[in-house]
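Exercise 3.2. Students should predict the tertiary structure of the chain below and write it as structure tokens, then compare their answer with the key that follows.

Predict this chain's 3D structure.
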Amino acid sequence: MGLGNSFLMNLGMLVTVAYLANVLYKYWFTKTSRKIKYILSVLLMIFSGWICMMFGFKLSDNVIFDLRFVPLLIATAVYSQPLTLVVIGFGIGLARLTFGMSEAALVGFLNLTILGIVCAALNIWMRRSDYRFAIKGLIAILVVNGVNTINIAVFGVIPFKQYMLEIMPLVLPLSVGLSIVFAMILRDFQLDRRRALELKYVNEQLQSQAKELQKAKLTLEEKAEQLALASHYKSEFLANMSHELRTPLNSIINLAQMISENYPEKESPSADYGRIIYRSGQELLQIINDILDMSKVEAGRLEIVQEEVNVQELPQMLYLQFEQTARLKGLTFEINTAPDLPATIGSDPQRIGQILRNLLSNAFKFTDEGYVKLEIFRTKLEDRQAVEYIAFAVKDTGIGISPDKHAVIFEAFHQGDGSISRKYGGTGLGLPISRHLACLLGGRLEVQSEEGRGSVFILYLPLSLEATLPGSSFPAEDQAMFAGRNVSG
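Answer key:
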């Protein structure tokens, strides 16, 4: 076997040892202590030098040319303690003696010991130097190969002239080239190992995060169930309490009405007290009714009764209810109906009346001069051209609502601003309840208003009974307001 083939065999054995070491570390030594891993790695380096000598080129019975210094060279870039490199060099030198005691074996021992010291110095320099790793590695390879050549030329058993002229020109380029190749292969192994470790670490992190997310999900689901149960209990409590409060309150209202009627004199203090109690009781009853309806909405107990609604009777009933309010406030109150209205529609008359009473009550409450109008007409919506609707538009010349408050007024316990509830009173439940009722009826409630220029609230309801059946109501996105529509009238 020639020198080149022997060196290639050395390279192949070093690659094989490196691969086997990687496999052993991966499957056997992952759970061993750090100290044991360190000792095993040092022994592996010494063994790699010995295996190179085993398959080296034998120039004679005692002279062997091989790449035994390459493991020491690789160790220079791996270990952080310079003394470890001296130990590895000394160990590989001792391994040379296992092939027989001779002058060449002693020279080999001396050579590797010197190379161990040189590599320790290189290790110190590499850790302190700011050069790139590739440049430091190349310099180390050249230095170690150069020192190895000088040692063999000076201390070797081959005559200096013969070695320098016949052997060195072939051995040195092969040693440098194969050292670089093995360093690149080992570097690639190292990068693959690092990527594998990083991937393993990322997978462990992802698994840990997945477990934490699962725990968080279970916790959130448990909290959500607790909140839903608490909300249900609250709604049940409000519904029951509101119902129980109305019985004694109705008695108080009836008694106050009797007191005011028994004193026909307008200036009688008792009659004034009775009227105050009666008016306050009516307001409190309205608040309780709103709370009862809102609690039913939250508890999902608000029911819709489908029946024929007489469209002609609605305006008459509403006019009778609010005529006196308009007269007392000095406002014009009009109800205009289109001539093409149907006689009846399929819906819930009680809930329609509740919505319109809420809208008209708000219109009168927030209007001090001008008018309040209710206009009823047929129409079609742009996004629902296939369905025909009846529209109830409540217009007023009151204080109006700024556009940025249009969404807020449909939230429970909210009004246009805090001063409104102090000046005009109310809980802010009328509009949220009305909007929810409008959605349950298969329609929608919209607002069009500007601050200081009055308001227009429009209730759209489908004409046909089938349009309000379950499954045919508006989707969630249509239950919000739709600002920007004009009402003709």
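Discussion points: Confidence is low (pLDDT under 50) at residues 467-489. The longest strand covers residues 384-396.
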